[in-house]
């Protein structure tokens, strides 16, 4: 989960690239990981993709995932549920057809609170699409000048279909606001979005970029 200079909490997509020095007998693969979401509340399911990994003049024949909590998996694509609230370091090891290996390591942050915390949210089918409603709270000790709550809608295979958001006004420490976000997507239709994720952005009132 990444941070903008004025506070940014994202359940989104992150890519990591680690190049390895050449090993005896040939070059090692470059292990590349993309994964989504990169943070969230436990339990959190994260999807990992290593298909962008490459090796000069060869092919990758093995992909091994170590999720940092005792679980492992194989294959270019993997999913895993993280249940412990901590930062998990996930390691991808790829092996080429010449037996050379490359590694990449990425963090998954589970159960971390942010200044604009989503207290509750739910999804409801409405006659023209889908409505997402919820409640957020400023759990920090600084006034939030502007907050944005965004919902991402995914298809059944977790491909991003659309993002919609709501801008919230001035929030003092401890203050709560409700939000409502609508879209014309319907889960029951082809091209609909049965899966969802949510994230927040904030600008503090004492930040130089504030209006």
Any chance you could write out the topology, listing elements then pairs?
Layout: E1 8-9, E2 14-18, E3 31-36, E4 39-40, E5 44-49, E6 60-66, E7 72-74, E8 77-82, E9 87-96, E10 101-110, E11 116-126, E12 129-138, E13 144-154, E14 160-168, E15 176-183, E16 195-204
Parallel strand pairs: 4-10
Antiparallel strand pairs: 1-16, 2-3, 3-5, 5-8, 6-7, 6-9, 9-10, 11-12, 12-15, 13-14, 13-16
Q: Which tags fit this structure?
A:
211 residues, mainly beta, Immunoglobulin-like, 2 domains, four-stranded antiparallel beta sheet
Give the amount of beta strand, in percent: over 45%
Q: How large is the radius of gyration?
A: 20 Å
As an assembly, this protein is: single chain
Q: Looking across the biggest beta sheet, what order are the strands in?
A: 4-10-9-6-7
User: Under the CATH scheme, which architecture of the largest domain would be assigned?
Assistant: Sandwich
Tell me the overall shape: elongated
The SS-based structural class is mainly beta
Number of helices: 0
Structural domain count:
2
What is the CA–CA distance across the termini?
A: 26 Å
CATH superfamily of the largest domain: Immunoglobulins
Look at the structure and give the mean pLDDT: 79
CATH class of the largest domain: Mainly Beta
By CATH, the topology of the largest domain is Immunoglobulin-like
Low-confidence stretches: 1-24, 207-211
Helix percentage range = under 10%
Strand count, sense and barrel status of the largest sheet are:
5 strands, mixed
Order of helices and strands: EEEEEEEEEEEEEEEE
Tell me the total number of β-strands.
16
